[in-house]
Amino acid sequence: MPSLEAALSHGPVVLDGGLSNQLEAAGHDLSDALWTARLLRDDPSAIVDAHLSYYAAGASIVLTASYQASYPGFARHGITAAETTELLQRSVSLARQAQERYAGPERPLWIAASVGPYGASLADGSEYRGRYGLSAAELRDFHAPRLAALAEAGPDLFAVETIPDVDEAEVLVALAAELDVPVWLSYTVDGLSTRAGQPLADAFAVAAGVPQVIAAGVNCSAPGDVAAAVAVAAEVTGKPVVAYPNSGEVWDAAARRWTGQARLSADDVRSWLAAGVKLLGGCCRVGPAEIAELARACSAA
Fold first, then answer.
1. Transmembrane residues, as ranges (predicted)?
2. CB 226 within 8 A of CB 218
3. Which of 45, 134, 155, 159 could form a disulfide with 138 if both were Cys (CB 3.0 to 4.6 A apart)?
């Protein structure tokens, strides 16, 4: 199988869509604090089915169900450290089960181990604010064990995603470099700032010059914020750009539900491809139907 870096030199690569909305569409309750990570323990076959739905829709990369999985988060639910390691690594093996159903010489497929921010483990919307009040050492203590466990399972790369804060990005990029695992760095943004209010030029500078970072960009953001943000990512890093926004609906953390209407359009997709986005998919509320449409747009490009 060719490396993802080699594939990016030939054209855009399609990512999957939102794991949570696909699991909810299949009837699974994700209302507790563990969110999709709960099913790693309680119903792993459901996660395989969700990955299969995105590979079937035309995605070439799926992200594992590890976004909200962490040692402290699982410990709060009575899950031991050893069990947490097994669940983190299971997230990669479940994606591999789906990959093996569709991969072949004419269709290379990859697995990105999802590494969400510290705020995701709090299940209170903190990933959309950042500035947790933690030191770099405390953030490192939180992230290092989970990245090490995921790396041992052998994903093709890390998807360091929905990062709201430059401080956290610096810790995560350094850890990926130490483990020598390829990684993309993806911020959640508000206009031309991170969610924590830092300029995107400063945020993307974290990825510049780090060989393990193969792409940088944005996810879990409004479609209207993508174009300007990816232009900054391309200029500052000189690397391929990744973009996988939400549908356009807005998450109400207090009510734990989505509000508003979807605004992701085919015209958006074409404009992002024209702007040089090389890794393109969807995040929350973007399902297999939208990924299939996106895959068709990428093939046309």
1. none
2. yes
3. 134
- Annotated binding-site members: 220, 283-284
CB atoms within 10 A of CB 122: 16
Distance CA 78, CA 101 (A): 34
Q: Which two tokens stand for residue 190?
A: 């508000």
Q: Which residues are annotated as a binding site for Zn(2+)?
A: 220, 283-284
Coil/strand/helix, residue 147: helix
Q: CB of 283 within 8 A of CB of 243?
A: no
Quote the CA–CA distance of 176 and 178 in Å, as a whole number. 5
Residues 7 and 89: their CA atoms lie apart, in Å, by: 26
Is 278 in contact with 241 (CB distance < 8 Å)?
yes
Rg of the chain, C-alpha, whole Å: 17
- Please report, in tens digits, the pLDDT of each residue of the chain (301 residues total): 678 988 888 889 999 999 989 988 988 887 877 778 888 998 999 999 999 999 999 999 999 999 999 999 999 999 999 999 999 999 999 999 999 999 888 899 999 999 999 999 888 888 889 999 999 999 999 999 999 999 999 999 999 999 999 999 999 999 999 999 999 999 999 999 999 999 999 999 999 999 999 999 999 999 999 999 999 999 999 999 999 999 877 767 666 676 777 767 777 888 888 888 999 999 998 999 999 988 988 887 7
